[in-house]
């Protein structure tokens, strides 16, 4: 089980990313628009820099929904390899069969 503080920190980052997502996208569109004057683009860049760092989507870490483990994460199932194995052995994931040869 991951530290609760790490999981909560990641949840705060998700909430901030959802909250500031549209504003960040609008500012980035202004910054990337070559037809806008340089001063306006620079002001948009300063506004973007003033936003919280944790509101950037890139700072969100994929974590297992069951254990909070940050590594060996299956995106499709949103669980780590260890949780996947445990859930599969318990028969809680339909269609997953333990391999044996």
Structure description:
- With 101 residues, this protein is mainly alpha-helical.
- The protein is built from three helices and two strands.
- It has a two-stranded antiparallel ribbon with strand order 1-2.
- The protein is elongated.
- The two termini are 31 Å apart.
- The model has no long low-confidence stretch (mean pLDDT 94).
Task: Briefly say what this structure is.
The protein is built from 3 helices and 2 strands; from the N terminus they run ααββα. The protein has 101 residues and is mostly helical.
Percent in helix:
40-55%
The number of distinct β-strands equals: 2
Strand order of the largest sheet: 1-2
Oligomer: single chain
Radius of gyration: 20 Å
Strand content: under 5%
> How does CATH name the architecture of the largest domain?
Orthogonal Bundle
Largest sheet data: 2 strands, antiparallel
Q: SSE order, as H and E?
A: HHEEH
Morphology call: elongated
Q: Give the rounded overall mean pLDDT.
A: 94
CATH topology of the largest domain: Helix Hairpins
- Tell me, what is the CATH class of the largest domain? Mainly Alpha
Poorly predicted runs of 5 or more residues: none
Distance between the termini: 31 Å
Helix tally? 3
The number of domains: 2
Name some characteristics of this structure.
101 residues; mainly alpha; Helix Hairpins; 30s Ribosomal Protein S14, Chain N; two-stranded antiparallel ribbon; 3 helices; RNA-binding; structural constituent of ribosome; rRNA binding; Small ribosomal subunit protein uS14
């Amino acid at each position: 089980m991951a530290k609760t503080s790490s999981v909560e920190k990641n949840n705060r980052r998700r909430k901030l990313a959802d909250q500031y997502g549209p504003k960040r996208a609008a500012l980035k569109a202004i910054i990337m628009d070559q037809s806008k004057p340089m001063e306006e683009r620079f002001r948009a860049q300063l506004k973007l820099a003033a936003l919280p760092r944790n509101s950037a989507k890139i700072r969100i870490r994929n974590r297992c929904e069951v254990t909070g483990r940050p590594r060996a994460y299956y995106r499709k199932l949103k669980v780590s390899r260890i949780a996947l194995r445990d859930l599969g052995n318990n028969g809680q994931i339909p269609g997953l069969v333990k391999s044996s040869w």
